[in-house]
């Protein structure tokens, strides 16, 4: 009886409150009217529901669905919702929906007395508008304060939106069990078809769920859902919505669930897409500059994260450059050539003509959002850095060619005395010979001759993120001895300049982001940078080709009009690299152990080259 009394108090107080506010607003200009107060305290300008976003590959195939705020929802317009569905909810939830102002005092009283008579909750007193208010703005706690707030929010919704807009919001907001929100999503989740494709029996079946998503869970409690479906079908017949024949056909129609799992593939690539989306929004909306200027970067970083989440919750389509065939080949090659669980690998493949990242491997047996070695692992590049830091700058500055001579003999400076891999000295050799056999002393001499600062100036356009001031004072960087190192994606991106006549373009996974109607919201607008002269690039391509044809990179050889690249091995065999390019693609492969262990036992096999070959052939 106490519960019933509380309900009656709420029902009585609301109209008194509304009437008093209205009179007070008219009687005195000094006292704000109820409408003004509600507009200030409960401003409702739009009905926003989080909905799914989507990531597509290069061919327009869906590779990942993103459910914002853990709500799997695909919004559907009012005009696209079948009339019979609208009728079901009007008849079963709120018969006076198109007449009331957001709440139905008579309906609430009726529910109170029916529930009191049965001593149970047989009927709810909430209108469709109240249920929408509760779903979007309020909690589901059973208190009278919440109930009063619900009525006030409902009043505001009715004041600011049409009945159709409210009904549309409601049918997209309600919960259909199993993480599914909205009638359109329920159709695809339970039957794997669009709502317009469903049979009358199926439409009514899913419409039965929201009344009690646990009791009427189609997967766990199918019979309960079927029983309520039949009751709703009879309700439609009694109200002349459907004919007797339609009723009989629907009752006989077999309900066969076809659960649609959320698409979530290509974990390696998709993980980086999320990272790049954040970068794209940051660049486009000024957060990058704010971060550069801010003293408290954490505040700006938090704002950026919130902005990205908001964009995703509004429903977007992220169009990417993923070439799924290459991605599959890459993952398979890493699995095949790295059979040991102790050894890991990472890789990037870029179409250097379109400047798109077409495949990424974050590691063997990679799991989504885990540590992605392709862009988060910074390792010593070994000799793979020589073309970028030593050879290209040296040729660009001195005008040397592939046939020019360089001393590959002993070298010592300030107690730094590097050795060639064979521990032999070779005297004067051509640049081609020095690179294809990866003579260390020749590379160090080149960087020493042009100067560390000058050499590093050629790396600046590539944006290597972990190069430090200490690296600028360490001649060992000539052969890959950095303080932290580079990521596979960074190194591969830098090598794309050899495929673009010495120009460097930023490389991306995302080529545009649109809303669900196809309107472009974000896209990269990069300007290429000339790193070295075209003549320098021609000589470098000769050198890189020699490495694969007759040097340390022969295991990477594939049939192509052009193929060139460079191997790299760090001290104590902790890192194995091969980075190279064909006519169209540039790819970089790293092999090693996460904690920097020795991998000399697989060095002679050249797994990094075998992976590269299998992907590129």
From TrEMBL:
Q: Which SUPFAM superfamilies match?
A: beta-lactamase/transpeptidase-like, Lysozyme-like
Compartments annotated for it: namely:
Cell membrane
A single Gene Ontology CC annotation of this entry is:
outer membrane-bounded periplasmic space
Q: Which residues cross the membrane?
A: 5-24
| Highest taxon in the source lineage | Bacteria
InterPro entries associated with the record: Beta-lactam/transpept-like, Glyco_trans_51, Glycosyltr_51/Transpeptidase, Lysozyme-like_dom_sf, PBP_transglycosylase, PCN-bd_Tpept
In this chain the Penicillin-binding protein transpeptidase domain maps to 345-582
Please list the residue ranges annotated as the Glycosyl transferase family domain.
59-234
Alphabetically ordered keywords of this record: Carboxypeptidase, Cell membrane, Cell shape, Cell wall biogenesis/degradation, Glycosyltransferase, Hydrolase, Membrane, Multifunctional enzyme, Peptidoglycan synthesis, Protease, Transferase, Transmembrane, Transmembrane helix
- Write one Gene Ontology MF term: penicillin binding
UniProt catalytic activity: Preferential cleavage: (Ac)2-L-Lys-D-Ala-|-D-Ala. Also transpeptidation of peptidyl-alanyl moieties that are N-acyl substituents of D-alanine; [GlcNAc-(1->4)-Mur2Ac(oyl-L-Ala-gamma-D-Glu-L-Lys-D-Ala-D-Ala)](n)-di-trans,octa-cis-undecaprenyl diphosphate + beta-D-GlcNAc-(1->4)-Mur2Ac(oyl-L-Ala-gamma-D-Glu-L-Lys-D-Ala-D-Ala)-di-trans,octa-cis-undecaprenyl diphosphate = [GlcNAc-(1->4)-Mur2Ac(oyl-L-Ala-gamma-D-Glu-L-Lys-D-Ala-D-Ala)](n+1)-di-trans,octa-cis-undecaprenyl diphosphate + di-trans,octa-cis-undecaprenyl diphosphate + H(+)
**Gene Ontology biological-process entries:** cell wall organization; peptidoglycan biosynthetic process; proteolysis; regulation of cell shape
Q: Which family does it belong to?
A: In the C-terminal section; belongs to the transpeptidase family.
Protein's name in the database: Penicillin-binding protein
Please give the organism: Metabacillus litoralis
